[in-house]
Amino acid sequence: MFRLIETIKLKDGVLQNIRLHNKRMNHSRFELFGWSEDLILNKNILNIKDYSQGIFKCRVVYDKVIQGIEIIPYQIKTINTLKLVFDNSIDYSHKYEDRECINRLFKLKEKCDDVLIIKDGYVTDSSYCNIVFDTGTRLITPSTPLLEGIKREVLLTKGKITEEEIKYTDIKLFKKAYLINSMIDLHKIDIPVKNII
């Protein structure tokens, strides 16, 4: 049986956006395994008080049940450049532990720090983040992500970003791009559009 992961930001002893992580995990368990009995992550992640200061990555591996939990200190990687890579068959609609389809594309990054995956001509995600483009007055995320991330959902719900179809040929119309995921807040990684090649 294949396994999935849920990556949760643990900040100063508090699990961030835990309701949304629970929702996504249980949706995947139902959709992929037909398992309708909900798991509640915050009842299974113990010893949170040991991580009362700082930012940690909590990585939960699961299938029908939780298979393992790991909590480690977190540091944001430096990302300054993105390489466009094209794959019309890639599918990462659930957060699978097996990332071979993404790792294969990551190897094509050449001298860049990461890749930006294009599917059927449309912008999707980097190897581990959703992307948000800045027009100067608006923040727009592609409506065609490989994985609908938790941070992306939070920002959409709050109205801080909107979603639109973005073709790879549209990238030049923006000023810069931001990478976001459950560990990385908006504006923490910004990339000038000229650095997306």
Offer a quick outline of the entry.
With 197 residues, the chain is α+β, with helices and mostly antiparallel strands. 18% of the residues lie in helices and 31% in strands. The protein has a 5-stranded mixed sheet with strand order 10-9-8-11-12.
CATH superfamily label of the largest domain: D-amino Acid Aminotransferase, subunit A, domain 2
Instruction: Give start-end ranges of low-pLDDT stretches.
Output: none
Helix content: 10-25%
Q: H/E order of the elements?
A: EEHHEEEHEEEEHEEE
Average pLDDT level: 96
- How many H/I helices? 4
Our estimate of the beta-strand percent is 25-35%
- Structural domain count: 2
- Spatial order of strands in the largest sheet: 10-9-8-11-12
What does this structure look like?
It is built from 4 helices and 12 strands, in the order E-E-H-H-E-E-E-H-E-E-E-E-H-E-E-E. It is α+β, with helices and mostly antiparallel strands. The chain has 2 domains: about 5-75, D-amino Acid Aminotransferase, Chain A, domain 1 (2-Layer Sandwich), CATH 3.30.470.10; about 80-195, Alpha-Beta Barrel (D-amino Acid Aminotransferase, Chain A, domain 2), CATH 3.20.10.10. Strand 6 (about 115-120) and strand 7 (about 120-125) form a beta hairpin. The mean pLDDT is about 95.
Q: How do the helices and strands line up, and which of them pair or pack?
A:
Blueprint: E1 4-11, E2 14-15, H1 18-33, H2 41-44, E3 55-62, E4 66-73, E5 82-86, H3 100-106, E6 114-119, E7 122-126, E8 130-134, E9 139-142, H4 150-157, E10 162-164, E11 176-180, E12 190-192
Parallel strand pairs: 5-6, 9-10
Antiparallel strand pairs: 1-2, 1-3, 3-4, 6-7, 8-9, 8-11, 11-12
